[in-house]
Design brief:
This protein has eight helices and no strands. The protein is mostly helical and 158 residues long. The chain has a single domain, classed as Ferritin (Up-down Bundle). α1 packs antiparallel against α4, α5 packs antiparallel against α6 and α6 packs antiparallel against α8. The relative contact order is 0.16.
């Protein structure tokens, strides 16, 4: 295998490890019992959408690496937004803290936007591949906020 293919597989593996937060911290019965807005996507949509997004994230990172190598600032931002991504599942589902999860996902959206700007000079394609991720995170942030608002008086949070 060429180095380029190995690096791509590394990005895919890294994205998969971040995605594993959704396996470790599952919605479960607690989430099912929460009041949700009428516009909540069906449960089956989440793994499909996130699988596509994690693949796009991996390809995006790989494209920048192919163009410029591991550039410290863009990949530092990339790593930061991936950590925030992982933390959201832990905060929302694991700790049952939609308030802290909303803060996290707000920072995540900002970090993705900065990541797009940081990737742009190296690969416009890589930057554009992150746009659907940002859009979905904005929807997820709105959903997170609404779930928090609808349920905060019920005493259902840890």
């Amino acid at each position: 295998m060429t180095t380029s293919i190995l690096i791509l597989l590394g990005f895919i593996l890294f994205s998969g490890l971040i995605a594993a937060s959704g396996i470790v911290f599952k919605p479960g019965t607690w989430y099912q019992g929460l009041t949700k807005p009428s516009w909540t996507p069906p449960n089956r949509a989440f793994p499909i959408v996130w699988s596509v997004l994690y693949l796009l994230i991996a390809i995006s990172g790989w494209l920048v690496w192919r163009q410029a190598g591991f550039v410290i600032i863009p990949f530092g931002i990339f790593l930061g937004q991936m950590i925030l991504n992982f933390l959201w599942s832990m905060l929302f589902f694991g700790r049952r803290r939609p308030d802290l999860a909303f803060l996290d996902i707000t920072l995540l959206g900002l970090a993705i936007a900065v990541n797009i700007l940081a990737f742009w000079p190296y690969s416009r394609t890589a930057a554009l591949l992150l746009v659907p991720y940002l859009a979905w995170v904005c929807v997820a942030a709105a959903l997170n906020l609404k779930v928090w608002q609808l349920n905060r008086d019920r005493g259902t949070f840890a």
